[in-house]
Amino acid sequence: MKKGNEQLAVMTGLLIADKPGTFITRHLDWAEMQFGGLVGDRHFGVISKADVRQPMYPRGTEIMNRRQISIVSEEECEEVAAALGIERVAPEWLGANMALKGLERLTALPRGTRILFPSGAGLVCEGENEPCVHPGKVIAEQTGNPKLAGKFVKAAWNRRGIVASVERPGIVSAGDEVRILFPDEL
Amino acid sequence: MKKGNEQLAVMTGLLIADKPGTFITRHLDWAEMQFGGLVGDRHFGVISKADVRQPMYPRGTEIMNRRQISIVSEEECEEVAAALGIERVAPEWLGANMALKGLERLTALPRGTRILFPSGAGLVCEGENEPCVHPGKVIAEQTGNPKLAGKFVKAAWNRRGIVASVERPGIVSAGDEVRILFPDEL
User: Fold this and answer.
1) Scanning A87, B68, B100, B101, which has the fewest C-beta atoms within 10 Å of its C-beta?
2) pTM of the model
3) pLDDT tens sequence across B112-167
4) How far off is chain A from B13, nearest CA to CA, in Å?
């Protein structure tokens, strides 16, 4: 990744976490991104509360929300499926908000990378989304194979995508071609 | 920098940009950090407007403010002074909000590094602060040597410190011992 480098990808899926009682997200044709995330998503908010992901702050204290939107790649989902020995891992099983196609390695995108949409909206990569146990449970249910529940974290390590925050609001649509703009200094 | 690594430093100077008509900051004993930055500072705001630093957005559009607080190190200021052949470069001449002492190379801190204060307040490193021409003019004035104005950008390259945003509000005080907490994955 060179200075000023950029790359193109396609947002093949746009999804929202708004179904009560499940981690699974559902597909949308388009959505409004505001400061704070996707309108209607349960992770929406400029401010959130510290949890197990921010152990340097007391649980429940208000902090800036840098985990507004989670993004996976089609390519890495295929690798996770292969590692689990199953046909497919769907982005919605991972609770993802966006699925991208065309990037060699989404999870390795450096913090500060921008993801820019045709509407003018922009996201900033806040870093790797370290795998937790929830998707494993979903995959076990979806495939009917309870043994997979405990295998997800290892299978998804370095392939689970990134979290991002909204830098500039705007409309995003499934099928959008997005620009991936690497930060100047790496 | 290893996983989970952390380091200590001392905030030797706390400064605010609130004097009309000048880039120079002034020292405070303590200040309140809220979401958005230092209360009363001209860069305060959760939201700011895109400028020359964000050429991927139209000038003047509202974006998240990731340049709330600028931080320099005593050690790098000494290196810049040596490169300019002068005795001292004061943090206030650079418009800095904080001066840290005890870090080998502040400017190289990765994005996502946390700076944690005794009050519980926390900052997140948003990246290197690339040198602009303003401090050169101040240094030329302060030293009475107009030739230095054009030499600052080169002398300060990779030594100009970082910008940060407030992750958790709280009081910060000159003399605070701060924890520098590196992100897990680099």
Assistant:
1) A87
2) 0.94
3) 999 999 999 999 999 999 888 889 999 999 999 999 999 999 999 999 999 999 99
4) 24
- Beta-bridge partners for B15: B27
Instruction: Select the residue from A64, A105, A114, A162 to test the B interface by mutation, using most B Cβ atoms within 10 A.
Output: A64
Whole-angstrom Cα distance, residue A115 to residue A73?
13
> What does the H/E/C string look like for A78-100?
HHHHHHHCCCCCCHHHHCCCEEE
In this structure, are residues B59 and B51 in contact, taking their beta carbons and an 8 Å threshold? yes
Nearest CA in chain A to B57: A120
ipTM for the assembly: 0.92
Which member of A35, A62, A128 has the closest CB to residue B185? A128
CA–CA dist B33, A128 (Å, integer): 27
Q: Is B124's CB within 8 Å of A66's CB?
A: yes
Question: What is the token pair recorded at A163?
Answer: 């979290």
